[in-house]
Amino acid sequence: MNILPGNMRFGAGQPVKRLEDQRLLTGKGQFIDDKPEDGALWLHVLRSPHAHAKIISIDVESAKAQPGVEAVYTGADLVADDIGTIPTLSVFMRPDGKAMTVPPRRLLAHEVVRYAGEPVAAVVARSRVEAQTAAEAISIEYEILPAVVDPIEATRPGAPAVWAEAPDNIVAAMSYGDAAAVEAAFAKAAHLVSLDLVSQRLVPSAMEPRSTIAEVEKKTGRLILHVQSQTPGSTRDVLAEAVLKRPKESVRVLVGDIGGGFGQKTNLYPEDGMVAYAAIKLNRKVRWRGDRTDEFVGGTHGRDLTSTGEFALDAKGRVLAYRVRSVGGTGAYLTGAGSIIPLVLGPFVQSGVYDLPLVHYEVKAVMTNTAPVGAYRGAGRPEGVFIVERLMDAAARQMGMDPRTIRKVNYIKPAQLPYTNPVGQVYDSGAFAHMLERASKLADWDGFAARKRAAKKKGLLYGRGLTSYIEWTGGRAHTEKVSLHATAEGRIVLHSGTMAMGQGLQTTYTQMVSESLGIPMDKIEIVQGDTDLATGFGSVGSRSLFVGGTALAVSANDLIAKAREKAANALEASVEDIEYHDGMLSVVGTDRRIGLFEIAKNEPGARLSVDSEGEVDGPSWPNGTHICEIEIDPETGVSRVVRYTTVDDVGIAVNPMLVTGQVHGGVAQGIGQALYEGVAYDPEGQLLTASYQDYCLPRADDIPLIEVTLDESAPCRTNPLGAKGCGESGAIGGPPCIANGVMDALGEFGIKTLHTPLTPMKVWQAIRDAKAAAAAT
């Protein structure tokens, strides 16, 4: 971890309004689709209508003859041109002890298609409509093969194989803990609690669908790719080195404004590679814009984890052992993190904020004939926390305990910190019982009974949900690079490899630079999304502020140190006698001084510059307590969230207003996951939820007033800012909190579990079945 001077200031914790909003809300944003066409050709992707099939033949001659068509490409064309495949991290082992093996993910399918929506051919034409029309003239003969869409079914004997080299469809498996010791603890436990749980597959729903533009720069011959990417540096490297097989320096990736990322925009997609390939082949600017349906069928999905979780407890509610068996669906191809999400990231937090002495986790990553699964807000951590938090409530109900009491019995105590959890992850700080107590007061825990009685008078069921969550952040990349420049024009310019996508980085970074250097905020410029200027790890895993911000803090210190050296020479004094304050460098005890920007005038390029790297000691562990109250109309099954209170530990918040907004957004997505959203395929692999007519998102009137309180009592100890990631927390605490609330409301009927999303039909049917069962006894 970087050790920085104690007198440096890195943000005053002020709720500065977002600097980005004036530009974005007045139509001055620079999204890809805002770029002028400038004679660009349009690319359209033809997708497979089948979930699994051999490609017998493709006839593109009629399509080539269509008006406006410049080129038509197939998978065979790309193979002939030695175009590479999109890589994944093949670092795990299969259950048989062999290395994991996965089908190559090509830009266009070659010989076999493995999910409905897989790109099979691409048409490039003078207009988007001409490209779409010509694609309809492509004739493809398929031999349809059996498909499998359910990860559990995919592991059964005789299931269709997605990839012949993994005939059981198991990509890889991981095991954690001591199976024998856990079995022994279960054998002698006073109470056993078991739940079958599903974190269903979701479709990320950013405001801006994916789009791409590529062109070859005439002067240099370099490829310029405009793309939506949370990780511009790795996008450049994968495209250049793995797909196009050329030096990465020959590619420049530019990212403008992004209308939402949520983890979905961390990968290079086949469409991006095809646009780049076509631009090189034709030496023309080429662009592609996905429709919303392209996002549903061709973008990555999230979650898709099916688990059985079990607690063995003593008579006082202390968990003696914890056992989880999970199957994570990867889809037909593995994204970069496709196997890491279920096999590693979920287990990282699966024990939650609890001191659980014995665990045994078994996880399998399984292929199906469906769209690939990738990162989506939380990426594994929502799934892991969902299991332990649902079990905590189920155990409390079964044992007749207050859900707070059972958590207090099992919490990690302050004296145990730093605490190493069962899979070797170290929690550096936290005050878990304190968070629960504070949230209980703010949520008016004691007033719940009266509100429940009032709801009952109106014929409504009423329940309360509770969650104590923890989140692992950092993306396993603990360094970040930035460049900081003072210019002769009187401006400070920061170049960062992190990427804004709605979280307000321009504002927080500007705050930090302003505080550190004493320069007005309107004199500061934040530049991201240009691989020629900065190539950091990017923005994933809620790492931008605590890792990228650390690099910024280091660069501010480095710039002052360099300016002091320059000032010492100019003022003919020793460096030790030079002090910096608000853009001026002075000789201590004299009136001799020189301005930072005056120094910059005499530097090469008329700017004083430093390249810096920030390093943190490890991940951060934001955590908190969420409490909600739910009312259910038993006649319709409609569940409504009427109260939602959170207390969130994000360490030191640079801008509390932005953090609160991040929690709001995450909770909204958590409500969507718990009550509304869910991907459905039919047995043949056709996506049944391919539009918002069939895939339900929460609307504004489905979201209650969310009361967020930030707690700074346990600053992070792994970075000099004391900050913890915050972007995914709401989406981790939200789903189990809502689900627990619904199950609490349904408890009077003896209903113990329902799989999310808890739709009106599911809830109504469960109530109906419970009443029928009661009447029959």
Features:
777 residues, alpha+beta, 7-stranded mixed β-sheet, 5-stranded mixed β-sheet, 20 helices, 28 strands
Give an overview in words.
With 777 residues, the chain is α+β, with helices and mostly antiparallel strands. The chain contains 20 helices and 28 strands. The strands form 7 sheets. The protein has a 7-stranded mixed beta sheet, sandwiched between helices. Strands 7-15-14-13-8 form a 5-stranded mixed beta sheet, sandwiched between helices. α11 (381-399) packs across α12 (403-410), α11 runs parallel beside α19 (729-746) and α18 crosses α19 (729-746).
In short, what is this structure?
The chain is of the alpha+beta class and 777 residues long. It contains 20 helices and 28 strands.
